[in-house]
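WARN retry 2 of 3 for item q-0093 after timeout on previous attempt; input resubmitted unchanged.
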Amino acid sequence: MSQNQVWQDFLAEHGQGSVVDGTVASVVPFGAFLEVAPGIHALLHASGWTAEPAVGASLSVRILDIDEEKQRLSVAPA
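OK item q-0093 returned
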């Protein structure tokens, strides 16, 4: 399955405001990237957490913004 198809399938089930579970894939100075579906990553900005999450941690997040063109998601703690 192509990345575009994975992205379209994800968007068919989840929209702005949806709550999804994700796994922290990496932590960077400005936030953390979570894998919310196979091949789909979202950015949790550092201002959205009270303590830095550990890589591998599971988090429930709410989708704040969807950039379909760039295939990017912005999320906040649910």
